[in-house]
Amino acid sequence: MRRQQALVGGMPPPSRIESVVKAIFLTAICLVVVVPFIGVVSTSLASPEQVIKSGGFVLFPTHGIDWSAYKSILSGGTVTQSLLVSGFVTAVGTAIALFLTCTLGWALSRRGSVGNKPLLLLVLISLLFNPGLIPSYLVVQQFGLLDSLWAIILPVSVSAFNVIVVRAYFVGLPAEVLDSARIDGASEWKLFWYIGLPLSKAVVAVVGLFYGVGYWNSFFGALLYLNDSSKWPLQLVLRTYVVNGVEIGAQDLGAAGEALPPQTSIQMAILMISIVPILCVYPFIQRHFAKGVLTGAVKG
């Protein structure tokens, strides 16, 4: 029956060899993605003896689970401080970015508002032309933000792409609901706060995730603007100790006088800590992606 339907549709069914080749190809891709991740988790949890014996990469911890690497990096040293900094930057930055993006998107969605078209044109132009590195640094310097956490929060608090997506979603809201609220005496701010935002939870959740991931993973701004290592976010510490291979000492971990796990275990533990928060948040937001982004991109 399937063969007849396929032939009627003009496409022959895949042969057994083609199906086997596709299965092998997809399995290989999955292994390429999954095996390194399992190795990172296992290496961070393996015993020091097994890590040293295996040469630094453990696929499965056979001597039980050892949490010493996580205890070392969370004992109050550089990694703990950077984790708090990243949490602050992500929470505050995402809140500010969402407020600015949603209010600007709402203003641009009101076609009769003053300065709507020129402001929308500026937002669209910013999608094509980005400021250079030197002008961005000079702006941060002139505002006195150097060596401050605000230097990695404020300059990237508004994304033109996210503004366009939010604006398109607001444009697609039912006009009848907004008009009835205006007749009842609702101001523009009340329309935005009590009607616009509650009806746009999907796009707000998706845009918030975009901003949150961007702030959590940012390190280049911190590399440019922050000289004080105590203000470094987690990703910059990750770059220093994992990517550049700088050895982590006991004084960096707040564990002076204690025996440290192997450097590879500590590096993999730092890597896991940088990944886990996004993995925990993503499943709660993932269901809004199709509704939020696609609807917001098509409407308007």
UniProtKB/TrEMBL annotation:
Give the subcellular location: Cell membrane
User: Which Pfam families does this entry report, sorted A to Z?
Assistant: BPD_transp_1
Residue intervals of the ABC transmembrane type-1 domain: 83-285
Q: Give the bilayer topology.
A: Multi-pass membrane protein
For this UniProt record, the keywords arranged alphabetically read as follows: Cell membrane, Membrane, Transmembrane, Transmembrane helix, Transport
GO CC, alphabetical: plasma membrane
- Provide the transmembrane region boundaries: 20-41, 83-107, 119-138, 150-170, 191-216, 266-285
A single Gene Ontology biological process assigned to it is: transmembrane transport
Member of which family? Answer: Belongs to the binding-protein-dependent transport system permease family.
- Write down what this protein is called: Carbohydrate ABC transporter permease
